Every structure is written in C-alpha cells, then in structure tokens.
C-alpha cells in the first residue's frame, strides 16, 4: 500500500508483528565531531572512520548523502543472502579461486541453493549513496544502486549464519591443500555488520532490535527504546550508540570512551517525500495567495 510516498507493508512470513515504515526520501549525514587523539588512544590506528564509512569520514564537517528510491517485499535464496551478508568476509584470493579454480563448483549458486534449499522473506530497499566529502555533492551518486536488506524474521539471521559457517568449515578442508582458508563469522561480527551498514530497521524498532539481540545471545549489547548500545574493545573499551527514529531510519552514530566522552559523532537529517510534498504545497499556496491579494489590491485601487 502506497500513501503519499510512505510505503507500509504488513509481513506475511513468520514474523507477523513487524512492518517496514521507511519512506522514500533523502538524508544528509554530517561528521559533527572527531577527536583524533582520543580515537588513537581508545580505538587505535588499526581501524579508522574511513574503514567503517568510506570517503572523507575522518574529517569534521564532511557530509554524505543517500536517497532511498524504492522498497519492496522479496524472497532471497540462500546464495542471495550469503552474497549480501558474507562476501566481505571471504578474502579476494579465495573468491577468485572459488569462482575460477578447480573447485569452483562448491561456490556456485546452484550448489549452495541445492545444499541449503531455503528461502527467506525480507524487505529490500534500493538507494543511491554519495560518499563523505568536504566538497559539494556531484549530481551523480558515487554508488548509484545499493541494496538494503531487512529480514522479516530476526531469527533467520542465526540460521543463515549457522549454515554459512557449516559451509566454511567443509570448504576449508578442500582449500587447505592450496594454503587458502575462509574465516568463520561470529555472531557479534554479523550483528555489527547489520547495524553499522544498514540505513534502517523494521518497526517497532525496539522490539525488532531486542529480538535480534536475543537471537544472537550477545551480552555486550543492549537496547534502550530506539537506541542501540554496543560495547566494543579497541586499545581500550569503548561504547557505540546507534539511534533510530520511529520510522526505523538510523539517525546518528556516536562513539564514546569508557568515561562517556564523545570521540566521534555522525548525525543525519532525513527529509521524506511526503514532507517535501507538503512543503511544496505550502509554498505554492503561499505564492498563489500573494498573487490573489495583489490582484485584489490593484482592483481596489482602480475602483478608488
């Protein structure tokens, strides 16, 4: 059902209590604060803001932008969802070997979908993204067509992770002959990837995040209303706070040291099509009103 640019779906799979309320629109995100010395002291230099967010994410006042163009209900095969969630964990040399080497059959879509014959219900968002920059945004996005995926049933993430790691263990038995290996993915790693990379989450946000945490049984994460608090370890312990609005969009990303002092902050301002439409109507009505008043005033002057 589409109403004035806001897309609302009622799930039809196992998770009947969640829905997607993300509206088409554009968000501009700004690096509001970065303490480089504290980052080095707390997190270290093995990870930088650029590693997480790309572009000029290590520069204060740099901006990025994304435009959510459409959302839809989809069903993913195992191969589809693996490609979206896990390809970043497979070393490039291993990917090349699996796709072109003697054992390419163990990484084909047909092989994986036959061995793990399951479909997963999800929402899929198509969006364009502009990387963080201190310059004016180009007319064309750096990434013209990105895919955002939100599984309707949070428990599906655990099943997908388990069968992926099962495949990794089996595949490594073959790869070790060639001195190659694929790392397994931990529950914390995949959870971090989901919340860090996603533009939004299903609604109600708090309940969806809580079920996701319960599914993975991760102790160092908690939810407070629409805020996700993630305890991580770098050189020292630090805290990541990720905020979502009532529609499910991620609105800010904050890193604090163990004394709750802000180290890094990204804030976003999302403008939906419905708000832009209302603003346009207000401006048009105001303009028309001015014209009408001007005409009436001129008419009165002539009568005088």
Structural class: alpha+beta
Task: Report strand order across the widest sheet.
Answer: 6-5-4-3-11-10-9-8-7
**Major sheet characteristics:** 9 strands, antiparallel
Helix content: 25-40%
Query: End-to-end distance, in Å?
Result: 56 Å
Uncertain residue segments: 1-16, 273-295
- Count of DSSP strands: 11
- Helix/strand order: EEEHHEHHHEEHHHEEEEEH
Mean pLDDT: 84
* SS strand fraction: 25-35%
CA-based gyration radius: 24 Å
Q: How many helix segments?
A: 9
Number of domains: 1
Shape: globular
Write structural notes for this entry.
- The chain has helices spanning 36-42, 49-53, 78-86, 92-100, 109-115, 155-175, 187-197, 205-216, 273-303; strands spanning 2-3, 6-7, 25-34, 63-77, 119-133, 143-151, 221-224, 227-233, 237-244, 250-257, 262-272.
- The protein has 304 residues and is α+β, with helices and mostly antiparallel strands.
- The chain has one domain.
- Strand 10 (250-257) and strand 11 form a beta hairpin.
- It starts with a strand and ends with a helix.
- The relative contact order is 0.16.
- The model is unreliable at 1-16 and 273-295 (pLDDT under 50).
């Amino acid at each position: 059902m589409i109403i004035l640019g806001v897309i609302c779906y009622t799930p039809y799979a196992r998770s009947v209590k969640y829905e997607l309320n993300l509206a088409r629109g554009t968000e501009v995100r700004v690096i509001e604060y970065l303490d480089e010395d504290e980052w080095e002291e707390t997190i270290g230099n093995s990870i930088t803001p650029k590693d997480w967010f790309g572009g000029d994410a290590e520069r204060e006042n740099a901006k990025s932008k994304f435009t959510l163009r459409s959302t839809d209900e989809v069903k993913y095969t195992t191969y589809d969802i693996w490609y979206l969630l896990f390809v970043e964990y497979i070393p490039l040399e291993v990917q090349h070997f699996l796709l072109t080497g003697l054992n390419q059959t163990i990484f084909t879509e047909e092989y994986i979908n036959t061995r793990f014959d399951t479909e997963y219900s999800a929402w899929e968002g198509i969006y364009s993204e502009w990387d963080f920059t201190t310059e004016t945004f180009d007319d064309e996005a750096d990434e013209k067509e990105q895919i955002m995926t939100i599984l309707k049933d949070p428990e599906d993430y655990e099943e997908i992770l388990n069968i992926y790691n099962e495949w990794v263990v089996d595949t490594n038995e073959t790869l070790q002959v060639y001195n190659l290996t694929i790392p397994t993915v931990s529950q914390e790693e995949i959870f971090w990837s989901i919340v860090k990379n996603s533009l939004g989450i299903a609604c109600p946000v708090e309940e969806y995040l809580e079920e996701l945490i319960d599914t993975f049984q991760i102790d160092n994460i908690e939810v407070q209303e629409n805020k996700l608090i993630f305890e991580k370890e770098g050189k020292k312990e630090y805290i990541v706070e990720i905020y979502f609005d009532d529609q499910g969009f991620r609105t800010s990303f904050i890193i604090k040291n163990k004394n709750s002092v802000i180290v890094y902050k990204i804030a976003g301002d999302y403008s939906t099509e419905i708000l832009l439409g209302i603003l346009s109507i207000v401006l048009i009505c105001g303009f028309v009103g001015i014209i009408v008043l001007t005409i009436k005033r001129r008419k009165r002057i002539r009568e005088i």
